[in-house]
Amino acid sequence: MAIGMVGSKRCETAAFTLASIAVLVIILLNAFYL
Prior knowledge:
Blueprint: H1 2-33
């Protein structure tokens, strides 16, 4: 149970990090193109 909780937490953190990077990339691309 505990290991599963840690695993899901790590997955959530990784997904959040990827989402943040994607948003930053989109903002940078918009800044370059506009």
